[in-house]
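Chapter summary example.
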Amino acid sequence: MDIKLVQDLIKFVSRSGVNEVSIEEENFKITIKTNQAPVYVNAVTPAPVAAQPAASNAPAVQEIIASAPAAEDTSKYITIKSPMIGTFYRSSSPDKPSLVNVGDEISTGKVLCIIEAMKLFNEIESEVSGRIIKVLVDNASPVEYDQPLFLVEPV
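The structure predicted for these 155 residues follows.
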């Protein structure tokens, strides 16, 4: 197995929250384990639940489920999605302010963010008019194609 592939696998495991990955090939076997507590997602409410010792697990899970905030109704908002894979930036350079912030009024054609792909900086323009309700991606984070970036309340 190529060392680059092993490094990529280690990065994936550390970012994904997976606790253990094992791969077996004809002449090769690798197991990668992390020392993170496993995270389980409850099917009723999508709140992450950290694993705890078996004796106290049930009350803790019920407590987390009870304290999970009610899911927001986002059906009235328009989601602006990434048109490409790349790195998301909220401003045109590190020393400049964000292009848009929560509460800003936007119109069609307004530049919302920059996505860097293969050393090209692409301005992402709004296709709708409205008000920014939520920024869904952290600055300088990788984004995938069709990943939600902003929630906009139409006007």
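To summarize the output: Residues 86 and 118 are 8 Å apart (CA to CA).
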